[in-house]
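Service request form, structural biology core

Requester: graduate student, group of Dr. S.
Request type: structure prediction, single chain
Budget code: on file
Notes: please return the result as structure tokens.

Sequence provided:
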Amino acid sequence: MIGTGYVGLVSGTCFADIGNQVICVDKDSNKIEKLNSGISPIYEPGLDELIKKNYISKRLTFTTDIQMAIKLSDIIFICVGTPTKKGSLNVDLSFVYKCTKEILKYTKKKKILVTKSTVPIGTGDEIEKILKKKKRLFTVISNPEFLREGEAIRDFRFPDRIVIGSNENKVFSVMKKLYLPLMNKGAKFFMTSRRGAELIKYASNAFLATKITFINEIANLCEKSNIDVKDVAIGMGLDERIGSRFLRAGPAYGGSCFPKDTKAITVTGDIFKTNLSIIKSVIKSNEKRKIFLTNRVKKILSNKIKNKRIAFLGVTFKPNTDDMRESSTLFMVPFLVKYGAKITYYDPSGEKEEFSKYKSVLFCNNIREACQNTDLVIIHTDWEEFKAIDFKKMFKNKKIKIFDMRNLYSPSSMKKQGILYYSIGR
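Core staff response, request fulfilled:
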């Protein structure tokens, strides 16, 4: 596994746990040193224990020596980052191609080369061009990952499907053998062309992003028409053609996948002279969502933000992860600070470097500390510990305002407690 980021580390550890000998490689020596000491560089429930278990059993190795790792491996997974290029909607594939050149340099025996990173249509073709000097030694395939942050280990062990894209049929039997323990648990093994697999990942994420954006727009309509968006989502979700997942109104979608992948697939569409208008609209709507929710905060505070004390409960884009990428708070907090608000926040995954430059933003060690003497509490991320807070006991007789962006509480129950409660689409 080349790259010990989210995809490489989780996948590598889980591959080791189902009985394979796995070498995880990274050029970052500090990261490898930590991993060899049993310290995971990412926050993912259950991962630390799994790393230690397989490291002790000697099925899992961490190293900076890419030459050794390539030499000892039959299957090489490229799991390096594919971020969005600065000032562009397109994907930066420089890490993928640099990695490919390293693999070419050290390969002397036949290998299966797998792109696990999310890459646009035709990336496998470009990799083959780089490998042309030793083309006979490589079979290049696409095997996109579908791991959700916070649920990654379960998603690896019990996947809906395993997608393998190859232009050479003989490699499918090898990958079936690798994934057999998961197939025995019910995972579907889907074979397609390499380009087909590359597009499946982008198309899947674009569609899920569309569902989130769709229900957020329906939530706006619900607020104006006195309807509970939860009822609408349940009623829609019972239709098997639609399904209930990803129909939860809330902040804009964020994280490492949806924002990056929706942008990248529109660039691919433009390259192939195809206008992906729905996905382009989803991207615009999602950006507007951040502005809409910030304006809602202004309205709750009667447009008087200066010197107001605002507490954020959760700042990551979703629970059970420390990932801040594209979180709505990265827009909301600086905006509120600019207009004179004083921000406190608590997140179970710890203090965030992104907010350290703001003097009026303070990290707190617990919920009570964050909410002390506040004018407004914003529940941004639905961590488990935020689902049963006794606000009345915490604030005693003080009149408080709560903006619940995850609809964790009952409006009628909050009203009975004398709490000024605001939620999404209700």
